[in-house]
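Run log, item B.
One chain of 360 residues. Sequence copied directly from the ordering sheet:
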Amino acid sequence: MTRICVIGAGNGGLSCCVQLAHAGHQIALWNRSEKTLDPLRPAGIGYRGLLGSGWIQPDYIGTDLDAAVGNAEAIVISLPTSAHEGVANLLATRGITNIPVILNPGHTGGALAFRHGYQSTGQPCPPLVEFSTLSYVARMSDPATVDITGVAGRVWAAPMAGHMDALALACELFPNAEPLATVLGSSLANVNMVLHPPGAMLAAAWVEATQGNFTFYVDAMTPAVAGVIKALDRERLTLARAFGQELPDLEQEMRAIGTIDNETSDLDLATLIRTGTPNRKIMAPDSLAHRYYIEDFWFGLKPFIALAAVADVDVPTAKALLALADAAKAGAAPAGRDARSMGIEGMDLPALQRYVETAA
């Protein structure tokens, strides 16, 4: 049994609590908002789907971070990636420097932003592991119940600064995690960065006209959208090779995760995505303020472009999509994640590789 503090009470955080509780671990759940936690206090977390159905009761549910971390042996952060730097600041101000931290998910540049958030306070970053994407496909059907329609067959996990003990712990807690050498690999294995922006941008008018009254992975997944996805994926793989990482293409990645489950290999990408069971019923964003815009453009494509600049790799599709999002004010055009917020401003490729491999 491991004592784990889970930070985040949304789809991902509650799913993490369910899986970890099923494995016999002791769970404390922290979230900033009392309003979010209040529905969970009477009976705990309700769940149904691929992890079964029922209720689990964490040992602690609350907004007191000191109480939640307490005697934790690991911290799992399952929040939108835009929160990583802020949570790092919160933990750093409490002097938490030795408890392993797992970003599930980390998305693109999450570990870099988290480490920079720590270092900006003058505290050394704790052992840190980044997951490429969330371990689940999940949506909350009511404020106390999470529907888990997908459990990833594989997600990539990588350590920051060579913390292999933390990586081993992460892979023990989440058996579907497969190790990579550095976070440059896990950050570029973020499938949502490739999968969401083309469909979200090319269906923006439809989103605004219907408030998202269509299925994102079925109705909006046309051959033209799939063509843009493929172009963006080629840029991702090219950048990965510049970093010395050989990663699977999007179709292979989605098959490993389990969001493509059609065994036929000669179908086109649009058909394979449309027929994937876990995502089939997921509705489109209800506005351009949805996380598919805020998170996957400004905290996905934007850091991807910044990483590409370090490696001197051209990524025209990513730049075009981000420029369109900026013109459309998608997600209100937040500052997002850039080289400065990842702590890599002014670095060249050798300097970046040393940075992710070396302790602070």
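Observations after the first pass:
- The longest strand covers residues 136-142.
- The chain is about 40% helix and 15% strand.
Flagged for discussion on Thursday.
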